[in-house]
Amino acid sequence: MTSGPGGGRRPSDTGESTAADDARIRRFAEAWSRAVHPVAATTLTRAEFEARLVPLARRLSDALGSQPFDTAAAYEVGAALVGAQCTEPEALPAILGAIDSHLVSHCLPGDRMAVPLAEDGARARCTRLQHALAAGFVRELRKRERDQHEAISRAAEAARTAAEKALHASEAKFQAVFEGAVIGVGICGLDGEILVVNDAMARMFGGMDFFRPGRNVNEFVHPDDAPGVHEIYRELVTGRRDHFRIEKPHYRDDGSVLWTNLTVTLLRDSTGAPQYQLTLAEDITEHRLLRERLRYEATHDELTGLPNRTLFLERLDKVLAGEAEAERFGVCYLDLDGFKSVNDSLGHIAGDRLLKAVAERLRDCAAAPGELLARVGGDEFLALVTGPTAQQDATELARRMLDALAEPVRVDGRELLVRASIGVVDGPSGELSRAEVLRSADITMYRAKAAGGNRFELADADSNAQVIARHSLTNGLPAALERGEFFIEYQPLVRLADGTVRGAEALVRWLHPKHGVLGPDQFIPLAEDTGLIVPLGRWVLEQAARQARDWRDAAADDGDQLRVNVNLSPCQLSHPSLVSDTVAVLEDAGLCPSALCLEVTENDLIGVDEDALRPLRQLADLGVDIALDDFGTGYSNLSYLRRLPVSQLKLDRSFTRGMQRAPIDPVDVKIVEGIVSLAHTLDLAVTVEGVETAVQAECLRGLGCDTAQGWYYARPGPPERLHTLALADAS
């Protein structure tokens, strides 16, 4: 059994090809031939050319459905098309256009594949096959050019030898070689005066009239001449070099440009002294145009016509390397706000039309010398400005771009509002790397989005450092849990009536290998964003439950057992295994549910429906206490307290700061008194956070608060200290 280019079975190799497949392939080859034959430099008739394309069409069809997918066959097809004389500049776009229009519709694999290929997948494969074909086409074209160049070199050497012999031995023999050469041949004096050219050379330049008497090669200067070509020429005519070869443009008399491969050789007399220049020229104008077209397509965005990421980065690298003679640079990174909703609601065609309209407006904003605008992603644009005032210019450019997008864009009869966020970075040339500039621009652009969008922000080193540090912590979280870098400290909960320790709140810490001990405010939001809060929260619950069991086992009497409070995040509240995980943890620790209190922030329960409350109700029914943390910081209706399955309120410290020192703020006293009265009416216990002075503790006790925690009693610390405090209270 044989395999296709990608290793997968091809239908034609296994006898599975059908007459229908053959017919579709021939129809595709016919459409392909109809598009390409008129622009191909082939001597074949249309029918002969189509016959050449049939096996190539079959290879593309097989490659489209190959398993695993492989583009090698398309690469070889590209090379084969060059062999079929498809070498004109217009041939490659016609080839690729026909494949793009007809390959999938005629050759989409169906029941020939183990897993049928959807049209979107086939389209993606077709695009990759076009890329591979273009690469093979260009590679083969370059190889042919090299072969031709080598042939020219050999012809040049032969012509030089023949010319020398002809000059020295037989003028008639030299004239035969000179006139019969298929490439342009000319002879000049050492002063550059053109002495004679053959018919092939004259045809290149538009006729023999171009080489009128007295014409000098020094007149053939062109703005696009390669650097240093004049010095190389001087070395040749002075005898310091024997030959050189260059690609050189020339102006014809009608103003058009001729590109040639020039080989210039020094002819010496019998004594070895320089005597003449022999020039051999090949017309490469068409090949040059093809290369320029391929270069343009590789460096410009197909949809908008703007430079793409490749060209932008090339220009940026030159500026950052100091090659562009720019003292400073500025970069504006623009991203459209909410563009995804346009594609989702109106479709990608409307989205493309919007992008083209946006690109036109932005192009007008960045049209000054030293400014470059590029489309680098779906709805992302980068602008580069250079010069001594680049910092100010970049800021002004950002303002112009926002102003240009202020007016709605009309697409398919709809007026669409366009908003954008822009990050602006500037600096001196030669000091920053490309990665540093783009990272700073990206961070700054997202700062603008976070600030509400439709604005620009300037890069700030401190803000960048914070984002990078946040990213570093986020990446380090999963490994930190695996390596056991987290630990728990416990802050006592004290009964205000008698000052005894009632329990403790478990507070997780991260012992970071680089940054030291980090508090929960530094990494819990990151854990919530990444989803790691669920396994981390379960780990905290397991550790806290085991610690509560250890406190119980170490108790000296049969008094009230110490309870442990554990915080729940919004992600944990909505996780389907919250109840089962909690029950499993309590059973593994041998701990009764009443020894556990789960703290839920008030804002997380504002406006939730009954389905969201069901897990908390189930836990409360099992005997687990539920505490409403940071009570008073939200804007919930107090009537919600009647329907929430909570048994405790944890009063936010902002209500009791006015009680830390005498005289006590009477307004704070009235507020706390009202909250305590309401809570007790609803049979809810009240815990106060942030107690820091004896005056504050005494006032709260007098107001009827049940428990308190804060630095007045103890800072968070190791679990052994809590047991020591409990024993001290008992004694």
From TrEMBL:
Disordered: annotated segments: 1-20
Organism: Streptomyces milbemycinicus
Pfam hit, one: EAL
PANTHER family documented for this protein: BIOFILM ARCHITECTURE MAINTENANCE PROTEIN MBAA (PTHR44757:SF2), DIGUANYLATE CYCLASE DGCP (PTHR44757)
Family matches, as PROSITE patterns: EAL, GGDEF, PAC, PAS
Segments forming domain PAC: 240-296
InterPro entries in the record: Biofilm_reg_signaling (IPR052155), EAL_dom (IPR001633), EAL_sf (IPR035919), GGDEF_dom (IPR000160), Nucleotide_cyclase (IPR029787), PAS (IPR000014), PAS-assoc_C (IPR000700), PAS-like_dom_sf (IPR035965)
Protein name: Bifunctional diguanylate cyclase/phosphodiesterase
